[in-house]
Amino acid sequence: MKFMKLGSKPDSFQTDGDNIRYVATELATDLVVNIGDVKIYLHKFPLLSKSARLQKLVATSNDENSDEIHIQDIPGGPAAFEICAKFCYGMTVTLNAYNVVAARCTAEYLEMYETVEKGNLIYKIDVFLNSSIFRSWKDSIIVLQTTRSLLPWSEELKVVGHCLDSIASKASIDTSKVDWSYTYNRKKLPLENRNSPQWNGVRKPHMVPKDWWVEDLCELHIDLYKHVITTIKTKGIVSGDVIGEALNAYALRRLPGFSKGMIQNNDFIKYRSLVETILWLLPMEKGTVSCSFLLRLLRAAILLDCGEMERNELMRRIGQQLPEATVTDLLIRAPAGEASIYDVDIVHKLVEEFVTHISQTDPIENEFQGSRSPKFGPDASKVLVAKLIDGYLAEIARDPNLPLSKFVNLAENIASFSRPSHDGLYRAIDIYLKEHPGISKSERKRICRLMDCRKLSAEACMHAVQNERLPLRVVVQVLFFEQARATASAGNSTSDLPGSIRALLPGGSHGSSRSTTTNTEEDWDSVPTAEDFKALKGELATLRLGSSGSDRNGNDAAKTDVEKVSASRTKGLVVSKIFSKLWSGKERHGEISSSDTSESPGSTNAEETKSTPSRSRRHSLS
C-alpha cells in the first residue's frame, strides 16, 4: 500500500474523555472547534494561515465575542478534520488509501488552496493521488470503496471518476503487462498447472489469466461495482465471457447460499437490488454467461421476487442456452404453499423459450452454428434438450405429489424432438409408475403413450417386458419390436402374429382385425398378471441364453451365413412363443383385473376369478 508522510513535528494531540481533543503545548488555546459532539481546543494562527474557511468562521465568531465555532456538515467528521489540523501545525501525519479521500474532501471544505498558502494540503493530496494511488491497482479499489461515505464531495472532486478510470484501464490492459499483485484463488490456466499439451518442460514466464481482476472487485459495494463494470464494458476491450465470470464471482461472494440455489439471509430488499443489478450488467452476447449461472440467477430472482420483466428476459436467455444446462440446474424449488417439490411450470416455460428460439433462428445461422460447433447445432441441440428433460422427468417423478398432467405436458413439449433412444423417457415413466401406484388405467395408458417402444435399447426392452407396472399393451409392443429386430436380417415377417396383437401395434394392422379386439381394450390397458410374468421370465431366460450363445459364435470365423439366419429365426420363434404364452394366459384367465391401483399379483388374480372369458372374444382370437 502506498502512503505519504507529511510534517515533522511530534503529534501532540491528546484526548480528555470521549468527546474532547486538545493540543498539548505551552501556549494556551484560543479557539474551540465543535464538530458534532466533539470539542477540539486549538490555536488560531496555524489554522487560519492555511484555511480560508476557518478565517471566515473565526471572523464571524469574533463579531459575536466568542472563541467557539461550530461545524456540522464537514465531510469526514472529526477524524478527517484532525488530519488537516495536524498538517496546519506541521505535525507528522500519514496519508494512505484509507484516509486520503476523507482528508481531501475536508481540505476542500476548509478551502486549503494554493492561493491561501503555497504547498497547501489540497495540492499535496492531489499529487499523492495522481502519482501513487491511482497508479496502484489495489489502492485504487480501496480508495473507491471509501468514496461511498463521502458523497457527493468525492464525486464532485472527481475522485470517483479517476478511480473508475484507473481500475477499468488496468482491467482492460493486455495481461502480459500486468506486473502488480492481485487476488486469484480460482482454477489456473493449463499452462500454469503445467498439464497443457503445449508444455515442453521449459520454464516459461508466469501466465496471467484473463480474469485476474475479478476477485479483487468483489470487495466493492454493488453501487460502485456497477459503475466499475459499466466503465470496463464501455472501453470495449474485455470480452463478454470475462465480464460474465466477474458477475458470477461477485454473486457467489455477495449472495449467501447462491451456489446452492438459495438465499440464506432475510434482507430481501438488499439482495433483490443486488440480483437486479447483476441482471442489468449481464453481457448481451449469447454464450458469454454459462447457462448454469443464469439458472442460479433465476432461482435467486424467484426467491427474491424480482420484477417480472427481469425474470422473463432471464428465461428468454436461458431458453437460448438450454442445451448447456444440467438436470441439477433445473431442479428449482416450487413456491411456498404448493404441494409439489419442484417448479415444473418454470421448466416448461424454458422449454417453450427454447422451441421459440429454434423456430425463429435463421436457417443460414443454424447451418453456420452447426458447422462451427456441431455439439450445439439445431438438431444436436434438440437431442441434448430432449435428453436433459428426460433426466429432469426422472427426478421429478419421485415426487409423490406431482400431478400426472405436469409430467405429461412437459414430456409432450419435446415429443417432436427426434432422438435416437427413449431409454431415458422409459426410466422416467417407470419411476413415476412406481411412485404413483394409485393412478388409473387411463392415466397409466396416457403416460405410456409418451414412449416409442421402437426406440428402446435391448436392455431397456428386457426390463420392460418384465415390468409389472406397464400395461400389457406396452409389453406386447416391446416384444413385437424386439422380434422385428431379431428377424429383420433373416427376411422374416410378423404376419404370423395373431391379428388382435398386430392391431395393438403402432402402424400395424387395422381394419377387420382391429374390430375383432374391441372387447379386449380394457384387458390390453391392464397390468399383466403374475402368471403372465412367470411364463414370460421362463421364455426370456431362454431368449437371453440363445442370444448370448449367438454373440459368442458371432466371432467364430467358421460360422456360415446360413447358421446366422437360422439363429435369428430361432430367436424370432422364441419371441413368438412368448406372444403365445401371453395370449393363452389371457384366454385362461379371461378379463384382466379392472383395478386401477393395485400392483399386487394376489389382488389381480382375485379380480380375475370374478370374470369369465367371452365366447365371441375367444372366437375372434382363434
Secondary structure layout:
Blueprint: E1 3-6, E2 13-15, E3 20-23, E4 31-35, E5 38-42, H1 44-48, H2 52-63, E6 68-71, H3 77-89, E7 93-96, H4 100-109, H5 121-131, H6 137-147, H7 153-156, H8 159-171, H9 190-193, H10 214-217, H11 222-235, H12 240-254, H13 268-281, H14 291-303, H15 308-320, H16 327-330, H17 344-360, H18 363-372, H19 378-396, H20 404-413, H21 423-435, H22 441-448, H23 458-464, H24 472-488, H25 499-502, H26 511-515, H27 521-524, H28 530-554, H29 561-589, H30 601-608, H31 615-621
Parallel strand pairs: 3-5, 4-6
Antiparallel strand pairs: 1-7, 2-3, 4-5
Helix pairs in contact: 3-4, 4-5, 6-8, 8-11, 11-13, 14-15, 15-17, 17-20, 19-21, 24-29, 28-29
Structure description:
The protein has 622 residues and is mainly alpha-helical. The protein has 31 helices and seven strands. The strands form two sheets. A five-stranded mixed sheet has the order 2-3-5-4-6. It has a two-stranded antiparallel sheet with strand order 1-7. Strand 4 and strand 5 (38-42) form a beta hairpin. Helix 17 runs parallel beside helix 20 and helix 28 packs antiparallel against helix 29 (561-589). The relative contact order is 0.04. Mean pLDDT is 78; it is low at 189-196, 508-520, 544-554, 557-571 and 585-622.
What's the Cα radius of gyration? Answer: 39 Å
Which band does the percent of strand residues land in? under 5%
Shape: elongated
Mean pLDDT score:
78
Helical amount: 55-70%
DSSP summary, beta strand count: 7
> Biggest β-sheet, characterized?
5 strands, mixed
Q: Termini, distance in Å?
A: 96 Å
- The poorly predicted ranges are 189-196, 508-520, 544-554, 557-571, 585-622
Number of helices: 31
Strand order of the biggest β-sheet: 2-3-5-4-6
The structure class reads mainly alpha
